[in-house]
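thought: fold this chain, then report.
action: predict
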Amino acid sequence: MTTPPADLPPSRTEDDGSAVVRLLSYNIRSMRDDTAALARVIRACAPDVVCVQEAPRFFRWRKYASRLAMATGLQYVTGGATASGPMVLASLRPYVERTADVLLPRTPGLHQRGLATAELRFGESARLGVLSFHLSLRDAERYEQGGALLSRLRGLGPYAVAAGDVNERPKGRTFQRLAAELQDGWATAPWGAEYTSEPGRPHQRIDAVFATRGVEVLGCGVPRGLAGVTAQDLRAATDHLPVLSALRIPPA
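observation:
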């Protein structure tokens, strides 16, 4: 198991061509809360990549996605309404090689779910597949979606990460299905705090970063003591806490 540092390492490309990537997962509740606080939290995390859940997906959703990207110094990559909520943002550091949004089979009467995926290159040859997800509230549908997520992630290459809102705690069968094939970031290299919900009274971990076996997890968890961010900002930004990870991606 990797022993995480006191703080997550900064983004960097190492001498052997491997890339240290800071990846953030964050359920933003359709930007219905304090968007200035939300932007402060994201900027303070200094991410290379953000896997967003509950991105705006209705009227003028692209405008709101653009506003969030501009406020955080990031670029829109893929997702939003086209993935029914999950979205990927990134800094200018990675080169976007390809993207794909997938709508999952929907149970009548339940919310449409989807996956936002991107294949990113850092430097000359460090490639990372990224998948943002938000699984169902219904157990049976969530379990099937977990299987679809794993299948899609396998197609993103040997170095890939799935980050999002599982809507289930680690002992749940879908969470365990994902953790059986992938590295659960918090369990592999715990850093910061564990619980992601709710900001005013954190008591459960339902958001996670999962990585394929070839990715080295340097640290993963809810960040504490972000510069320029108050406890009130975290409560006001949305109804989840962010999950920040540092990952080392070897060159291809």
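thought: worth noting. The mean pLDDT is 96.
final: tokens above.
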